[in-house]
Specification:
Bound molecules: adenosine-5'-diphosphate
Distance between the termini: 46 Å
CATH superfamily of the largest domain: PAS domain
Number of strands: 12
CATH topology of the largest domain: Beta-Lactamase
Structural class: alpha+beta
Strand order of the largest sheet: 2-1-5-4-3
CATH architecture of the largest domain: 2-Layer Sandwich
Order of helices and strands: HHEEEEEHHHHEHEEHEEHHEE
CATH class of the largest domain: Alpha Beta
Largest sheet: 5 strands, antiparallel
Shape: rod-shaped
Number of helices: 10
């Protein structure tokens, strides 16, 4: 739909335009009526002259013609046409071109007085005046005189041209002014929207900039900032709760694990041993989930510091691949490493290794037996100031519809949920760790063809995430 700015400009222009046109019509009509009134006065004086000339010699009436009319001074009236009618509207004399419809709207009942009207003769407007006269024999006639109005219209042309120029120019100027005012009025709002767009659960410390003038926008911004304050408070206390709960759970879980391991070692009965074995693996799952939750809670609360050091990415990749060789072997998965460039950068070794291990672990976990997983390290082709680590597997791939969600917390693919262990937190944590380094993880995948995860890391992050 139309923006508020467009609506304001349109409404303003329409209202202002209507006022201007109304005003112009009023001025034009008044000027026109004034001119017609002046013409009427001259017509009346001409009528008086004709009547006076006829009064001198009433016999002239029956022989009324051009020669008589020419003897009556017109007083500068332009192109006066005269017509003499009997009272029953029979034309006695008419100037050429005076073909006025005899049934025009004269006040038929009042033939005794002077009447005026504006009519069209040969498609041109004329001002007509008629009045009755009487000859010696008491026979009544009607005299009609007509003058064209185009002179008046011509005289008012400059006014019309003025309006035709002034109205569009006025509208353009007023529309421009309305647009400018609305842009200025909305500018603080646009700034607020831009800030609001950058605010997310992780950047709730940011607040909307308020305009200095304490207007409606200021009030709206203040109300929104107060709302963000409240949401921030709630989210912070929730994060604190998750962090505290995860932290508190770790000690009893560790004790439980060592007790279960002890029992598992001691017990001889196979059914019991099996039950304890299952409990231990579930406990491992629970412990890793609690650890992941604590990691995320600390990341959210920005309590997690990065321990930056200079790293050799190529060496780190080889180390991670070595670490997962055991589980890959169990599934007969071939691990290949391609180092195109030995790359050094500043980063947090533990976190970057955890990212790589998570991606490798997923690639192996979700690939069927006897497949291949490759890791490539290279400098960005488009931007050589970036290191790219690309992990490609030939596993089941991720359907297009699921791809945007794999980095969200607790998201597990429909198949993964039933077929593999996991918590759905690995990729969410990996993404946050990479973001802490100023980089990003992207995924390309086609269902049935495998996945390709790319970790992009700037060689100099430009900011110290720690
Ligand atoms: P988890 O592996 O614990 O389920 P992750 O956050 O690591 O959680 O992954 C989220 C989901 O993304 C997985 O449940 C799985 O559906 C999908 N996924 C991740 N990596 C792969 C992969 N290499 N191949 C297929 N699916 C994958």
């Amino acid at each position: 739909m139309f923006s508020i700015k467009v609506k304001i400009v349109t409404a303003y222009t329409v209202v202002f335009g209507a006022l201007l046109v109304g005003f112009a019509l009023l001025v034009y009509e008044t000027a026109y009526d004034n001119e017609v009134a002046k013409l009427d006065a001259r017509l009346e004086s001409h009528a008086v002259k004709i009547s006076a000339a006829l009064d001198e010699d009433r016999h002239k009436m029956s022989s009324l013609g051009r020669s008589f009319l020419d003897s009556v001074q017109t007083g500068g009236l332009p192109a006066v046409k005269v017509r003499l009618l009997t009272i029953d509207r029979k034309v006695m004399f008419a100037d050429p071109g005076f073909v006025l419809d005899v049934d025009m709207k004269w006040n038929q009942g009042a033939l005794s007085k002077l009447q005026k009207s504006t009519v069209k003769i040969a498609r041109k407007k004329h001002r007509i005046m008629q009045w009755p006269v009487e000859n010696d024999n008491g026979i009544k006639y009607l005299i009609q005189i007509a003058v064209p109005l185009h002179d008046i219209e011509d005289n008012l042309d400059p006014l019309r041209i003025l309006f035709l120029i002034f109205i569009p120019v006025g509208l353009i100027l007023s529309g421009g002014a309305a647009y400018l005012i609305s842009v200025l009025a909305f500018r603080p709002m646009v700034k607020m929207v831009m800030t609001a767009e950058t605010i997310s659960a992780t950047t709730l410390d940011a607040r909307l900039g308020l305009p200095k003038v304490k207007d409606e926008v200021h009030v709206l911004g203040r109300a929104l900032n107060e709302m963000i304050d409240r949401i921030d408070g709630v989210i912070k206390s929730q994060r604190q709760f998750v962090a505290d709960a995860s932290h508190e759970l770790r000690t009893p879980l560790t004790i439980l694990k060592s007790e279960l391991e002890f029992a598992h070692r001691m017990v001889r009965k196979s059914t019991l041993k099996e039950a304890l074995g299952t409990s231990l693996s579930e406990l491992d799952h629970l412990s890793s989930m609690v650890t992941d939750l604590l990691t995320l809670a600390r990341l959210d609360a920005a309590q997690m510091k990065c321990e930056m050091s200079t790293l050799r990415l190529d060496e780190m990749i080889v180390e991670c691949v070595q670490a997962v060789r055991g589980i890959a072997k169990k599934k007969k998965i071939k691990l290949k490493v391609f180092i195109e460039e030995a790359i050094e950068l500043k980063g947090d070794q533990k976190k970057l290794m955890s990212v790589l291990l998570n991606l490798l672990d997923n690639a192996i976990k979700y690939s069927p037996k006897n497949r291949e997983v490759s890791v490539t390290l290279a400098l960005g082709k488009a931007d050589p100031r970036k290191a790219l680590i690309v992990l490609v597997d030939k596993g089941p791939g991720i359907p297009l519809a699921e791809q945007p969600r794999v980095f969200t917390r607790f998201y597990r693919g429909s198949k993964s949920r039933s077929e593999t262990d996991g918590s759905g937190l690995g990729l969410a944590i990996a993404q946050r760790f990479v973001e802490l380094h100023g980089g990003r993880i992207t995924l390309e995948s086609e269902e049935g063809q495998g996945c390709s995860f790319t970790v992009e890391l700037p060689l100099s992050s430009g900011r110290d995430p720690g």
